[in-house]
Amino acid sequence: MDASFWALVGLILFFVLIAWLGIPAKITAALDSRATKIRTDLEEARKLREEAQALLADYQRRRHEAEAEAEAIVAEARAEAEQLTLETTRSLEELIARRTKSAEDKIAQAEAHAIAEVKAKAADLAVAAAESMLVAKVTGSVAEGLTAKSIEQVKAGLN
Is the pTM of this model over 0.85? Predict the structure, then answer.
């Protein structure tokens, strides 16, 4: 019996001892549990990735909605500003037209008043001149009657 025979017997006894202690079943169970854990971890990672993608899509959608809303607000503000500018311009033009009309009316009234004053003054001067001329040329009671009558005619004609 040589050494290879005893090495073979030792190897066979080693395999029998391993089988009797249930080492292959324990190794298989450990590998199965590790495979199950890896499968669970992979499934959890897949779910987390799907959730992250859903959140990313949701945030992108919200961002686009917020951008669209901001653009709408800016457009509305511009439209309101333009409308306000138009209304202000129109109001200013109306105010200028009213004030111009008022100034023209006041000027026309002042002009009419000045003309009336000039006419009245001219009439008074004409009456005074006529009176002094009549007084100088006509004397007596005829002069007084004629003067009074002339003054009344001039006053009635000018007013």
Answer: no
| Residue-by-residue DSSP string for 42-67 | HHHHHHHHHHHHHHHHHHHHHHHHHH
Domain of residue 37, residue span:
3-111
Domain membership flag for residue 157: no
Nearest-angstrom CA–CA distance, 113 and 121: 12
Number of domains in the chain: 1
- H or E element that contains 152: helix 141-158
Average pLDDT over residues 33-49: 95
pLDDT in tens, 102-127: 999 999 999 999 988 888 888 788 87
